[in-house]
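In response to reviewer comment 3 from the previous cycle, which asked for concrete evidence that the modeling workflow produces usable outputs, we include below a single protein chain processed end to end. The sequence was submitted unchanged, and the resulting structure tokens are shown without manual editing.
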Amino acid sequence: MSDNRPARYVEADGTVVYRASSLMMCDRMFMAMAEGYGPQAHPEWFQRVLDEGTEMEPEIIEMFEDKHEVEVVDRQKVLELEVMDGVIIRGAPDGATPRGLFEAKKFRESTWGKFKRSGVESMPWYPMQTAFYMHAGEYEECDFVGGLFDGTKIIDIYTHHLTMPPVPLKAIIRRIARLENMIEEGVGIDVKCSEPKMYPCPFFYLHDPDDMHQLPVKPAPDAAFKGGLIEIATIDKTLTGLNKQVKDLTERRAILKDGVKAWLELSGVEDDEAIEVEGMELKYHTSHVKGYVVEDKDRLTVTVKPVKVSAATQAATKVAAKKLAPKKLGKVE
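The workflow returned the following structure tokens.
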């Protein structure tokens, strides 16, 4: 359910309300609203993008519930948190699951990769919004779920699981206190626009002339440029094959090293004790890694490297390798 109220508004009883989804919006926008300036409507194309997010939320929830066999409850439950006397933050998260907060966000193909890499950091306003929900609802964990939108429906989902709020409550309170102090001091719209720039900004008509972003003039591509594009595509195609080989070899090496570690343990070799076997130095080492926001774990390192051997041993090794090599097929008549 979308909320069309301003990012900051004052209720009849004088309570100042900040919307959770607007906490990281532009400073100048908040100053303009406090001074009575009116926002412009979103362009039609952008409003469609916003509406898509609202419309696709049930699809993301349904796919998540089916995949994890859980129920998302408390949908659009209103949360409030007083951060200063007479100043509150209010918002309605998408829901909750047995293990914590649930937030659903729609992404198109152009931003899907960034979301999968960065999660809640994929958009500048997501961290503080999500953190507020976790603090206000006392959720210790959060499933931050993205849905891939193909223009018609959600075709895939991906979950980033948070084990702590991405922003401390102290930082959220400080953000609101700073804005309220600026409003009280009458700073007005002379304040610099925040980074990153909002687009499209509902107060674009208040931007500085040198802040109007112009698209650069596109130079005509020459032959070298066109050739470079073709070469990039060729390299990318080659790397795709090489990356698969590297992945397969890395997985195979991990399996073999696990076997080496098991053999060393069965042979009575202790952690960090190096021995020589068939001209190779073998050793395993276990280190404890603190997880801080995730569980602690033990990390295993297995070392397998050649030791200095005599010329005779090197010759014997080459003979053995030659015997193990696959035989060449004879010419077929």
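The first helix runs from residue 27 to 34. We consider this sufficient to address the reviewer's concern, and the full set will be provided in the supplementary archive.
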